[in-house]
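Marked as duplicate of an earlier ticket. Keeping the data here for the record.
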Amino acid sequence: MTLRSILSLCAALVLAACVTAPPPPPARPPVTPTPTPPVTPTPSMPSTPPRPTGPVAKAPVPASDADAKYIPVTWAALPGWNTANLAEGFSAFSESCKALGKRAGWRASCDAAAQVDARQPDAVRQFYQTRFTPYRLSDGDKLQGLVTGYYEPLLRGDSQRSARGRYPIYAPPADLLTVDLASIYPELKNLRLRGRVQGNKVVPYWTRSEIEAGRGVERAEVLAWVEDPIELFFLQVQGSGRVELANGELMRVGYADQNGFPYKSIGKWLIDKGELTAGQATMQGIQAWAQANPARLAELLNSNPSYVFFRRLNNTQGGPLGALGVPLTDGYSMAVDPRYTPLGAPVWLSTSYPMSNQPLQRLMYAQDTGGAIRGAVRADFFWGFGREAGEQAGRMKQTGEMWIILPKGMTPAQAMAGGR
């Protein structure tokens, strides 16, 4: 098959919404973490420091939707750095090092981190300031971007279909086909096709409404049955969660695969229909609308053709596994676009708390991805597990700024190449 025919196939499946960015398992699904449309940025965000001078490194990974630049700065340019308690969340760097420590460019820093007294904020600050360089991340001249939130939900359900559990959490169906073309055409490494075989052709996989009607999942494994369809929908949005079974046991599930269709915001659908205003279209607002309009719930959910399949996770303690393959840390892990921010790297984030002007300036760790997390200055803040975390995540839609922090001597291009 020629490259031209491959590209024609890609184009055909794109039109059918069957091309997605390939999230390395167990990455979060290619769906929007907070299904609400963009809103006007908080007007009283912390003031932006003067743009520093110095050489600007262009993004090493080509992309059509961002013009990423990396500007080396001093530590004083990071708002809130000098007063932050860097000991809080430092354990998340140890988690990153489980993956980064295997790479030559990171190994020395990870070894040194193991010798730091993590109880002492000044010791952690000294570690970073002597061994790392911060780079201001921008999209062309745009220094600010969108910061949303996500969390790990708790659902009630059962291991068998019952009055308590009526809605299935499916494992990937046997007929779901994934075509990865990178080994043949490296220039297509950011494309992964999903579909099914029909005769001698690969065609788009079934849509959400078709799957809900039983297409493709007749023989798929059901991991659990849950009681609330809107909670199941938001489990697919978040990409991982726990199910409390009837016997009291907790089952953790995580993203396994997806039907190939891009997520379409149900919040935007409600706004377009005049059902909610932009300010009401938070996760909580959507849940309230669903409870008040049960007869239209299927219409709402099927407006989004994307469908996510799950796998059972063995780790029942700590955070869910992110795309880096390590457990996420509440309040210190975040999802990024890995085309511009290297997975595992520390990232200084300057934003504000949900629906407020209160500054939220913190050293975070890029340990996860999401299909809706696209762009050079784009982050998804992991709030943790349960209802309170969900309240924060569902309301978070702030502006923010990012600085990636790399070992001295490592260029952004080297970091994006894996830091090997």
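See parent ticket for discussion. The chain has a mean pLDDT of 85.
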